[in-house]
Amino acid sequence: MTISEVLNEIRPYQVKHVLLTGGEPLLQRQTPELLRALKKEGYEVSIETHGEVSIQAVAEDARIVMDIKTPSSGMSRGNWEKNLPYLKSSDEIKFVIASPADYSWAKQIIQSHKLSTVKLLFSPVVPVKNSPGKFPGVDPTWLAEKIIQDKLPVRMQIQLHKILWGADRTGV
To answer: What is the pLDDT of residues 35-57, one digit of tens each?
Structure first.
């Protein structure tokens, strides 16, 4: 879609906030231009990114939600570190916790990089019964108790759609 087609598509919804997500929206060359067009029309814009691509061109004009990949994801490469200087206090860093090892790793990252100046989210991968998957998952109660015990400055984020409709629902 062209930028004007995107704008025409979202205008009827009469929303004030737009989330650019993907795949990875920052791999699209026109994302900064789309962001500027959305801002010009009065939209607030968030960009959800894995942080492997530079956020420098968009950080000032968008709320950044950076999903730092934990070891269980198999995609934890560390390239997100170069984006830390561009994060604002209104931005968020999300860690998807799929194992106790992910929890320990994320806790160490928060402490070693002194990440308490941005909003921090821990999102548990909830084990799905009778569904052997790549990720072991963690019990949300266990995660909540670990966060409290360790006094981490994080907010726990549950994937509510999976609780309401299950992990395999399509079209939601």
So the answer is: 999 999 999 999 999 999 999 99
pTM of the complete model beyond 0.70? yes
CA-to-CA distance for 145 and 156, rounded, in angstroms? 11
Q: Is the dihedral of CA 22, 24, 27, 33 positive or negative?
A: positive
Read out DSSP for 19-70? EE-SS-GGGSTTHHHHHHHHHHTT-EEEEEE-SSS--TTTTTTSEEEEEEPP
Q: Which has more pLDDT, 126 or 12?
A: 12
Asked if 101 contacts 109 with a C-beta cutoff of 8 angstroms, the reply is no
Domain contains 112? yes
| CA distance linking residue 125 with residue 163, whole number of Å | 11
Domain presence at residue 131: yes
Q: Please state, in angstroms and rounded to a whole number, the distance separating the CA atoms of residues 115 and 152.
A: 11
Q: Is residue 172 part of a domain?
A: no
With cut-offs at 50, 70 and 90, classify the pLDDT of residue 133: low
Q: Are 66 and 81 in contact (CB under 8 A)?
A: no
For residue 67, give the CATH number of its domain: 3.20.20.70
